[in-house]
Amino acid sequence: MELNAILRELTAAPGASGDEQQIRETAKRLLAPYGEVHFDKLGNVVCEVKGSGKYHVLLDAHMDQIGLAVLEITPEGFLRAAPCGGADKRVLAGEEVVVYGKEPLFGVITSTPPHLLSDADKGKVAESLLVDIGLPEEKAKALVTPGDRILLRHHFRELLGSAVSAPALDDRAGLAVLLYALEFLKNANSTTDLTVVFSTREETTEGGAKAAAFAAGAEECIAVDVSFAYTPDAKHEDCGVLGKGPMIGFAPALTREISEQLEEVAMENQIPSQREIMSGSTGTNVDVMTPQAGGMRSGLLSIPLRYMHTGVEVVDTTDVENTGLLLAKYILHKEEAIC
Fold this sequence. Notes:
Helices cover 28% and strands 27% of the residues. It is an alpha+beta fold. The strands form 3 sheets. The protein has an 8-stranded mixed β-sheet, sandwiched between helices. It has a 6-stranded antiparallel β-barrel with strand order 4-5-8-7-6-9. Strands 10-11-17 form a 3-stranded antiparallel β-sheet.
């Protein structure tokens, strides 16, 4: 599997939270070789991989991305917008965007020139987000409707070494991990029953994963998401390190035995890994999946990522590969223990 090509394809498909139609078509096509694929009522892409029936594991990564939603068209023709998910207002001024109205429209987020700011306002983050598509009010209203989604206009780029940058690597990198693991397990003739979910709405409500977990009724669930990779302006204790392997979650919200087993499998197979310590919930889909259908044992694997919730998120493809490998090896290890 050529990870860069998969990541390029996954990050190119738009899919703002709650509006994932285009990315789910891509996801369905990529999952089709591994099992029976369907869409559920909340738009999740669900792939059922039949095994021996002895053990059933739910794997999840969310396919939605952060963006903006149009609130209104102003009398001057600007689009007033609000974050849809945790978009970072600090980095939005002057960004190029695509407005998904009746057709995709190029736009720019407005930015007040520093010459026109008072000393008191310099350095402040603007409360109101306005998008300029270059049209007067009536022409803008003919193409754009309140509720339409807006996404940052960035593209997949290869950096030096094995790092890549793109929007929506949170959590399209997680989708790539699951695809990598499925390919490995297929070649290894795995016998575990798998429900693989590419879920909707994680960035807003986590509703997609909650519904899918209830429907699956698996004995165990593992979520794959991204987490913070260290940069010089961050605290070491809050971050993993890019290129040092998957981050194995340890938290009260998770089953400690699974976390320890993931770590053991990583050591046995010489897969680099690092611990991620959380003192409560994890902030990922696993929090809402665990209590569903009478409860599931749960684990979390995270890919270190820099510049989260921007258009230039960065991951190391070796981390993506090693996370997929660890997940596959863990499932094979579970099969040996059950047999």
